[in-house]
Specification:
By secondary structure, the protein is of the alpha/beta class. The chain has helices spanning 9-18, 32-45, 61-71, 99-109, and strands at 4-5, 21-27, 52-56, 79-84, 87-93.
């Protein structure tokens, strides 16, 4: 399932209202570390049924900052957030964003 792009607070609120659980990748369009993390996220997207979303930090800075503030999670880029019932239940960033790590969280989450 390919990740959908979220660009503003309204789209994010729609996702929160619609999805019980989902992953969100905060992705920098200019960072090579973020590019590697996105490749891992995209590979993971081919094997999961969990909804996946991407936020391009440069294009949605206000939303990115809002999420960090609202959920009291320090902004990092790249960063993956796992949401369940409108709460962040897990997050990781930078070199820790790996396909197998994302898979492990979903398995743990589904137990």
């Amino acid at each position: 399932m390919e990740a959908k792009v979220i660009q503003n607070k309204e789209e994010f609120q729609d996702v929160l209202n619609r999805e019980a659980a989902f992953y969100l990748l905060k992705h920098s369009l200019t960072c090579p570390i973020s590019a590697a993390a996105k490749q891992e996220y995209d590979r993971f997207s081919l094997e999961t049924q969990l909804p996946l979303y991407t936020l391009y930090v440069q294009e949605a800075r206000e939303l990115s900052n809002s999420i960090a503030e609202l959920y009291a999670v320090k902004h990092e880029s790249p960063q993956v957030l796992l949401f369940e019932n409108n709460q962040i239940i897990w997050n990781t960033s930078h070199y820790e964003i790996k396909e197998e790590v994302l898979r492990e969280q979903v398995l743990r989450f589904n137990k």
